[in-house]
Amino acid sequence: MPTPNSPLPNQGGAHPAPAAITAAGLKKSYGDKVVLDGVDLHVPAGSVFALLGPNGAGKTTAVKILSTLVTADAGRATVAGHDLTSDGHRVRAAIGVTGQFSAVDGLITGLENMLLMADLHHLPRPQGRRTATELLERLDLTHAAGRPASTYSGGMKRRLDIAMTLVGNPRVIFLDEPTTGLDPRSRHTLWEIVRDLVADGVTVFLTTQYLEEADRLADRIAVLHNGQIAAQGTPDQLKRQIPGGHIRLRFTHPDTYRNAVATLQVATREDEDLVLRIPSGGSQRELRSILDWLDAAGIEADELTVHTPDLDDVFFALTDSAPAPAPTTRNQESAR
Ligand code: ADP
Q1: 131 C-beta closer than 6 A to ligand 1
Q2: Residues 124-149: pLDDT tens digits?
Q3: Taking Cα atoms as reference points, which of 63, 66, 60, 94 lies closest to residue 80?
Q4: Is 56 in the pocket of ligand 1 (CB under 6 A)?
Q5: Burial 136-167 (b: 16+ CB within 10 A, else e)
Q6: Please, what is the end-to-end C-alpha distance for the chain in angstroms?
Q7: HEC string of 36-47?
């Protein structure tokens, strides 16, 4: 029995939730190219963790290391409580991996792919067939179960890939850029699947280039930049780390705009759009005093919007890379 003062396995004082994944000082180079340069991670069990970074940042390399497909040059990591180096086979038994290295065989049907997977996991035939059928149903593929997988759309192939991964009942799932190249509808379906998995207690480690995807889906986000984690935390924690909040005043008449520019020295100008931006934390009190002040100065904008920092601001502040365009517009999105 641990005493109140003795540390529990996999629990650091700063992290009350048990960890599904921990990493400390992971390094990996290919020849002269340093890909990971000391990566530290902490992923609480039963959560969605997004590793965010532009193309070539090293996301897939991190997934390959954590899923034992390649070895790190240095550092330590545990997955599902098992040490990556000394307990690789236990790690492999506890995880599922899907992504750019898809296991789907296009020549055979969706059901046959599933049954093959059940055989690989040594499930008895009747149980294998039952599991395959249930998972195809859950991933909305029953209607296509008898068709060769090569006839599936991109979204269907990803779903089949995930269904195949789930045959082994993994506790930790790695999804490497699961929605890259998918249309908005398939992307949303996949987000729902991820949420369902986590509701069942599975830990999902996903990589993405999409800020919006990380923001909508992840409990915690790590931004990978120059081989290191530039920032790590909840989406809100990351947004609070950087300034970027402002009030945006839009004018329709150039004369009114010029008048406001002359009065509002603190504002940032966007002359082409007749827009002025005033830095603001967005609190009610601050908003009221700015409105009073605009009234007193006789400035009347045609539109006033309050902008709180979003992940774009965070990403720009932390990296010099341009993010991938958002996959969908917000009004297409159902509330989380
Ligand atoms: P991401 O998944 O973020 O796009 P990757 O992990 O795939 O990034 O790649 C990071 C960098 O490592 C890239 O510059 C890539 O070319 C390089 N790289 C990845 N795998 C290998 C390999 N097996 N041999 C040589 N270079 C590699």
Answers
A1: no
A2: 999 999 999 999 999 999 999 999 99
A3: 94
A4: yes
A5: beebebeebbeeebeebeebbbbbbbbbbbbb
A6: 40
A7: EEEEEEEEECCC
82-83/74-79 β-pairing = antiparallel
Residue labelled with tokens 């290919």: 30
Q: How many CB atoms lie within 10 A of CB 305?
A: 12
Q: What token pair was written down for 221?
A: 């986000």
Tell me which residue has tokens 């395959």. Answer: 132
Atom of ligand 1 nearest to the CA of 63: 6
CB-based contacts of 23: which residues, under 8 Å, 6+ apart? 39, 40, 41, 42, 66, 75, 76, 77
Contacts for 1 with CB less than 8 Å, ≥ 6 apart? none
Non-local (6+) Cβ contacts of 134 within 8 A are none
**Residue-level pLDDT at 283:** 77
The SS3 of residue 171 is coil
pLDDT (tens digit per residue) in 38-77: 999 999 999 999 999 888 999 999 999 999 999 999 999 9
Does ligand 1 lie within 6 Å of residue 59's CB atom?
Answer: yes
What per-residue confidence (pLDDT) applies to 39? Answer: 97
The sign of the torsion formed by the CA atoms of 55, 57, 62, 64 equals positive
Q: How far is CA 332 from CA 156, 178, 216, 312, 328, in A?
A: 21, 19, 13, 19, 7
How many angstroms separate the CA atoms of 215 and 317, rounded? Answer: 16
| pLDDT average, residue stretch 199-227 | 92
> Is 30 near ligand 1, meaning CB less than 6 Å away?
yes
Residue 70 CA: which ligand 1 atom is closest? Answer: 23
Phi-psi domain of 50 (left: phi exceeds 0; alpha: psi -120 through 50; beta: other): beta
Q: CA 123: distance to chain centroid?
A: 32
Q: How far apart are CA 132 and CA 211, in angstroms?
A: 34
Cα–Cα nearest to 250, from 304, 299, 295 = 304
Q: How far is the CA of 58 from the centre of ligand 1 (A)?
A: 6
Q: For residue 34, with 0-12 CB atoms within 10 Å meaning exposed, 13-18 middle and 19 or more buried, which class applies?
A: middle
